Amino acid sequence: MIVWLDGELVPIEAARVSPLDRGLTVGDGVFETLRVYSGTPFAFTRHYERLATSARALGIEPPSYDVVRKAGHAVLDANKLSDARLRITVTAGEGPPGSSRVPASPTIVVVVVPFTPAAPTAEAVVCPWTRNEHSATAGLKTLSYAANVRALAYAEARGASEALFANTSGNLCEATGSNVFAVFDGELVTPPPSAGCLLGVTRGIVLDVARDAGMRVDERDVPIDALARADEAFLSSSTREVQAITKLDGKALPAAPGPVSTQVANLFRDLVARDLNP
User: Residue 13 has what DSSP assignment?
Assistant: First the structure.
């Protein structure tokens, strides 16, 4: 595997960052994961804009659009991959251990791996921990993923492949690596930004294509226990795309995939087929 590290393509065996890199010591950094179709990273502009927004919110100067775009294509070409998963990581660079930061150049790493398609459906569980919608990092895609790792392990131990979080108000927030949509009486509903969820790129595209198709769509708070009464539900992410939820906490939902989920999945695939940078 060839990776892009701070402006150079290097074999992964030779790629090194400092033991004092703040991404390693305190999770001080941001990242993006993109789906690559036929050699082209999907929705690159949207992903870059979120990367830059998250970085600036942490006080990190993001690399330029052109630098990241060229790095992504360079690693795809170097690894001769067409359908892939591209990961862009930007950290605050090297600094002393602890929360205080000193001026430093960001560390930038771009890697690509072959893409493994997600299953067509998923089982999910509600995990016992909450998201803090008032957190300093709410809505940012940071490297601080320990809570997600623990929640996903909780789900996998119960035979599920995704864990859902409520927020401190008891409303549905998000999953460990995806956004959550539910259907009530034909209306497509997903938590609003105020719920504390990360505004996924695929989430935004789903909302766009659903509204353009004339579907009834709303971003509103959903009590976490109401999800079990949904007519159907699905997850959205760059790697899952649109993935119907079959069971929640071991109980089957009425339809998986249901008619709304199926329509949204088809609209998403149609978009991918005609526009790789929507």
Answer: G
**Contact present, 122 and 244 (Cβ < 8 Å):** yes
In 10 A of CB 212, how many CB atoms? 10
Largest CA distance in the chain: 55
Provide the 3-class DSSP secondary structure of residue 57: helix
- Per the document, the length of the chain is 278
Angle at 165 between CA 241 and CA 186, to 5 degrees: 55
Q: What is the dihedral of CA 270, 259, 121, 80, to 10 degrees?
A: 0
pLDDT of the chain, 278 residues: tens digit per residue: 999 999 999 999 999 999 999 999 999 999 999 999 999 999 999 999 999 999 999 999 999 999 999 999 999 999 999 999 999 999 999 999 999 989 999 999 999 999 999 999 999 999 999 999 999 999 999 999 999 999 999 999 999 999 999 999 999 999 999 999 999 999 999 999 999 999 999 999 999 999 999 999 999 999 999 999 999 999 999 999 999 999 999 999 999 999 999 999 999 999 999 999 99
Between β-strands 217-219 and 187-190, what pairing exists: parallel, antiparallel or unpaired?
A: parallel
Retrieve residue 264's tokens: 């949204």
